[in-house]
Specification:
The complex is a heterodimer of chains A (about 325) and B (about 450). Chain A has about 325 residues and is an alpha/beta fold. Chain A has 11 helices and 10 strands. Chain A has an 8-stranded parallel beta sheet with strand order 8-7-6-5-4-3-10-9. In chain A, strands 1-2 form a two-stranded antiparallel ribbon. Chain A is globular, with a radius of gyration of 20 Å. By secondary structure, chain B is an alpha/beta fold. Chain B has 16 helices and 17 strands. The longest helix of chain B has 16 residues. Classes of the chains: A alpha/beta (about 325), B alpha/beta (about 450).
Chain lengths: ~325, ~450
C-alpha cells in the first residue's frame, strides 16, 4: 500500500485551477510617476500558486453627511476636510488608492462643481496614490460632472460611475482626453455588465483602461449575489470571454455594509455600532476580494487596515 | 466521480423504464431529472436493484462524501458537488461549533456548556444557535466520560472530541452512544483511532499540516471503512489556510482524488506564534472564519462565542448556502413596524426573504411606524415577481380587502416596481394607492413627508 502513496505523492503537490487567458492588466497612474497595477490574474484568488495580495482603496466622501452615523461620531470634524482626511489615512493605514465619493447637488450645481473641482485637484495633487472619481446623483448630471472634473486630475487615476443609465460616452471621452481608466458600473447582473463593457469599448476606450464594478450588495444584504456575479465574470474572463476579462473594482459594496441591521441596530448587549460596522465592512471586503475583486474600497480606516493585515500571509 | 457532468440520459438508461409512477413521478425520465437535482432518493424507486442501483449510486452521489455525527439531532456535513454556487448549489451549510477545553473542575466546564446551549444569535431573518461543541480533553478516563454524557444532556448538541492521550476500550460504549467526531487523528495515533472509530462507529477527523500527509491518513482511514473528515492545519494566516482548503476541494471535485473527497474541518483561530500589532485576534479569527465558510470548510470551530467572531459567519452562511433556485421566503401577511397610529399607511412588499428584510430594516432604521404587508410572490423579488406574473393588481386588491379590518387607514404604498398596477389595485380595492420611492432606504423620509407616521 505504501508504494501507492509514494507514487501519488508527486501528483499531490498542487491542485490548481488555472486558465490560459490572464485578466487584462490596467495601470492606474498617480502623482510622481507611481502606479497601481490591477489585473493579470490567471485564476480566482488562491485557486492557484500565483501570489495574491488585494488592492484596497479608502473611500473618502466629499461631505460628512455621506458617512454613516457611527463613523461621524467616531471621527467628527476630521471628516470635514476630505483632503486632510485622505492624507492622514495615507500615513496611517496606507491605502492603495483613494476612491472619492461626490454627490451631485442639483440646485446650484455650477457652483458646486467648481467647489468639487478644487477638492478633486487638491486630493490628486497631494496624494501619491491613484484617485478614483465616484460620482452619484442625478444621472443626467453625473457624466457632465465627471467630464468637467476629469481635467482636474492631471491624467491620473480612474473615472468611475460610467453606467448604461448615464451618458457613458461623455465619460469615455473625458477618459480619452485626459488619460484615465474608466470603471463600468452595473447592478449585479453579468449580462448588463457585458453590454456596458462592450459599449465602452465601442466608444473607443482601450482595453487596458477598463475596470468593472458589478457589486452592490454587502454582507447580510445579499452578498451571495455579489459573490456569484464576481465569480461568474472572473471565470468567464479567464476562459477567454473578451467582454469580461477586465479587473474588478468593488467600490460601493463595503461602505454600504453599515446599512446592515447587524451593523447599526442599537443593542446594549452587543459591541458598539462603530465596531460592528467596521467589522462588517472588513468582512464584505474580504469576501469580495476572495470572490475576485481586484480593488476594493473601504470607508472605515480600521477595516481597511484589518483586511490588509488579514491577507498578509 | 470526476468533474465531468453526468447527463440525465445516462441516469435514465439505468432506471427500470416501466414508468410505473410508484416513485410519485409519472415517468422514469422525470425521476432521472429529479435524481440529478437531488430532489429524490434512489430508494424511492421500488424496482431498482443490483448492478444498476450500484452504478446509479456512483453516478449521482456527490464527489464530496458526507460525514454525520451526534445522536438525536444528527448533524451531516459535506456532500457538496460544486466549487461555485452559480454552477451548482451548495447543500449542507458550514456547521459552526465552539471549542471548550475540559477543565479540572467539571462544574466550570458544565457552566460553559450551559451557556453554549442557551446561546442565540439573530442575523438577517433568522435566529441561530451553536451547531456543535468541540471538546478538548487531556484524557478519556471514567470521570471525563461521565462529563461527556453530562455535556450531551446539558447542551443537546452533537460533539467533536479531541483527546491528548490514547483512547482506551473503556471509552467505546460512551462514544458509540454519543457518536462524536474523533478529532486529532495524526500519523502517530491513526491506527488506534481507526480501531476506536470502527468500534464506536463514529467519524474520524484526520489532521496534518501537510496536504500529502493528510491524503495518506485519509486513504488509510477510509480503506478501513471509517467515515473521514479532513482537518488540515497549515501555518498561521488566512491565505495559508484558505488556499489549502481550496486545493483540497479542487482535487476532490475537479480531479476526483478520493482521499480528498471528504468534508473539511477548519479552525480559523491562529496558532501560537501569530502576532499582529494591528489586528485584534478576534477580528483575525472572524475574517479567517468567513473566508473558510466561503471557501469550502464544511465545519468551522471557533475559539469562543464572541459576537464579533460569529455573527458575520452566520450572516454569510445564511445567504451563501441558500438555494439560488429556491429563494428564501417569509410568511405572507401583515407585519407591524414601530407603533403605527390611526393614520399609519400600509407599505407593501414581496415575501422574498431578502426583500422583506431590507424593507423592514430600512423602515426600522428610519424609526418609521407603519404596517408592512407582505404579499405572496412565491419568494420572488419585486422585479422578478412582476416579470414572472407572481403578483398582479387583482391579487393585491384581494389582499388589501382581507386586511381592511386590521388597519386604520385605507392607504397603501406600493413598491415602485408595481406602479403599473396602481389603477387596477385602486379599482379593485377602493384604497388610496401611492407609489413608494426608488430605494427602500428612503421610505422613512417618504412616510414622514406624508405626515402620517406619528401615532
Amino acid at each position: 500500500m505504501e508504494d501507492i502513496y509514494e507514487y501519488l505523492r508527486p501528483k499531490l503537490k498542487v491542485f490548481e485551477q488555472v486558465f490560459e487567458h490572464p485578466i487584462v492588466e490596467v495601470r492606474l497612474k498617480a502623482k510622481g510617476g507611481g502606479e497601481l497595477s490591477l489585473g493579470g490574474a490567471r485564476s480566482l484568488p488562491l485557486f492557484s500558486t500565483q501570489p495574491f495580495m488585494p488592492a484596497l482603496a479608502l473611500c473618502v466622501a466629499e461631505t460628512v453627511d455621506r458617512y454613516p452615523e457611527p463613523i461621524v461620531r467616531e471621527f467628527g470634524d476630521q471628516l470635514k476636510d476630505p483632503i486632510k482626511w485622505a492624507l492622514k489615512q495615507m500615513d496611517e493605514v496606507h491605502p492603495d488608492a483613494i476612491s472619492l465619493r461626490l454627490d451631485v447637488k442639483e440646485g446650484g450645481w455650477e457652483e458646486w462643481v467648481t467647489q468639487a473641482g478644487r477638492v478633486v485637484e487638491q486630493v490628486s495633487e497631494s496624494c501619491d496614490i491613484p484617485l478614483i472619481l465616484d460620482v452619484d446623483g442625478n444621472s443626467n448630471l453625473v457624466s457632465q460632472v465627471i467630464h468637467r472634473l476629469s481635467v482636474k486630475m492631471n491624467g491620473r487615476g480612474a473615472l468611475a460611475s460610467a453606467s448604461l443609465t448615464n451618458n457613458y460616452r461623455l465619460i469615455v471621452k473625458a477618459a480619452l482626453q485626459n488619460g484615465h481608466a474608466v470603471v463600468a458600473e452595473t447592478d449585479c447582473d453579468p449580462t448588463t455588465q457585458r453590454t456596458l463593457n462592450s459599449k465602452l469599448l465601442e466608444a473607443g476606450l482601450p482595453e487596458d483602461s477598463l475596470l468593472m464594478d458589478p457589486t452592490t450588495a454587502s454582507l447580510g444584504l445579499g452578498v451571495e449575489y455579489s459573490i456569484s456575479i464576481l465569480e461568474q465574470l472572473r471565470l468567464d474572463g479567464l476562459k477567454g470571454d473578451e467582454l469580461t476579462r477586465f479587473p474588478i473594482a468593488a467600490l460601493r459594496a463595503a461602505p454600504a455594509s453599515w446599512k446592515a441591521r447587524e451593523a447599526w441596530m442599537e443593542d446594549p448587549q452587543l459591541p458598539p455600532s462603530r465596531v460592528r460596522g467596521a467589522l462588517w465592512e472588513a468582512h464584505t471586503a474580504t469576501i469580495l476580494t476572495l470572490a475576485g475583486s481586484d480593488l476594493t474600497a473601504i470607508m472605515h480606516p480600521k477595516a481597511l487596515e484589518a483586511v490588509r493585515e488579514a491577507f498578509k500571509r | 466521480m470526476s468533474g465531468e457532468k453526468t447527463s440525465p440520459i445516462t441516469v435514465y438508461r439505468l432506471l427500470p423504464g416501466r414508468n410505473c409512477g410508484e416513485c410519485n413521478v409519472p415517468t422514469c425520465m422525470a425521476f432521472a431529472l429529479k435524481l440529478m437535482e437531488d430532489a429524490a432518493e434512489l430508494d424511492e424507486c421500488p424496482h431498482l436493484t443490483g448492478k444498476n442501483k450500484d452504478e446509479l449510486l456512483k453516478l449521482i452521489s456527490p464527489p464530496v462524501r458526507k460525514a454525520c455525527f451526534g445522536r438525536g439531532r444528527i448533524l451531516c456535513i459535506g456532500g457538496e458537488k460544486s466549487l461555485h454556487r452559480h454552477i451548482h448549489r451548495f447543500y449542507h451549510p458550514t456547521a459552526l461549533g465552539v471549542e471548550v477545553e475540559v477543565e479540572n473542575h467539571h462544574d466550570e466546564t458544565l457552566s460553559q456548556i450551559r451557556r453554549i446551549g442557551d446561546f442565540k444569535l439573530t442575523v438577517g431573518w433568522e435566529t441561530y444557535g451553536v451547531d456543535f461543541i468541540y471538546l478538548k480533553c487531556s484524557k478519556l478516563d471514567e470521570r471525563t466520560l461521565k462529563l461527556l454524557r453530562q455535556v450531551d444532556e446539558y447542551a443537546g448538541k452533537p460533539l467533536m472530541i479531541s483527546c491528548a492521550s490514547p483512547i482506551g476500550d473503556e471509552a467505546l460504549d460512551t462514544l458509540a452512544e454519543l457518536k462524536p467526531v474523533l478529532c486529532g487523528a495524526h500519523g502517530g495515533v491513526l491506527e488506534q483511532y481507526i480501531e476506536v472509530s470502527r468500534g464506536a462507529e463514529c467519524p474520524i477527523a484526520v489532521s496534518s499540516r501537510s496536504v500529502s500527509e493528510l491524503y495518506r491518513l485519509s486513504e488509510k482511514a477510509s480503506s478501513k471503512g471509517c467515515q473521514v473528515v479532513l482537518n488540515p492545519t497549515p501555518r498561521n494566516g488566512l491565505k495559508s489556510l484558505v488556499s489549502t482548503l481550496i486545493q483540497i476541494r479542487i482535487a476532490a471535485i475537479e480531479h476526483g482524488v478520493s482521499g480528498f473527497q471528504h468534508p473539511i474541518l477548519a479552525f480559523p483561530a491562529q496558532h501560537e506564534g501569530f502576532s499582529s500589532s494591528i489586528l485584534d485576534p478576534v477580528w483575525m479569527e472572524s475574517l479567517t472564519g468567513a473566508a473558510c465558510v466561503l471557501r469550502y470548510a464544511d465545519a468551522v470551530v471557533l475559539s469562543w462565542m464572541d459576537w464579533l467572531a460569529m455573527a458575520p459567519l452566520y450572516a454569510l452562511r445564511q445567504g451563501y448556502y441558500s438555494n439560488p433556485r429556491e429563494p428564501a421566503k417569509v410568511t405572507p401577511g401583515l407585519y407591524v413596524v414601530g407603533k403605527p397610529g390611526s393614520h399609519s399607511p400600509v407599505v407593501l412588499t414581496t415575501n422574498y426573504a431578502l426583500t422583506y428584510y431590507l424593507v423592514f430594516s430600512d423602515l426600522q432604521a428610519g424609526k418609521a411606524s407603519c404596517y408592512l404587508l407582505v404579499v405572496d410572490s412565491q419568494g420572488m423579488s419585486v422585479e422578478n415577481a412582476v416579470a414572472g406574473g407572481m403578483v398582479d393588481g387583482e391579487s393585491i386588491a384581494k389582499l388589501l380587502k382581507e386586511v381592511e379590518g386590521k388597519v386604520s387607514e385605507r392607504m397603501v404604498v406600493l413598491p415602485r416596481g408595481f406602479s403599473k398596477m396602481k389603477g387596477e389595485v385602486e379599482e379593485g380595492s377602493g384604497w388610496r394607492v401611492l407609489i413608494g420611492p426608488e430605494d427602500s432606504a428612503e421610505l422613512p423620509t417618504y412616510l414622514r413627508k406624508l405626515g402620517v407616521t406619528e401615532a
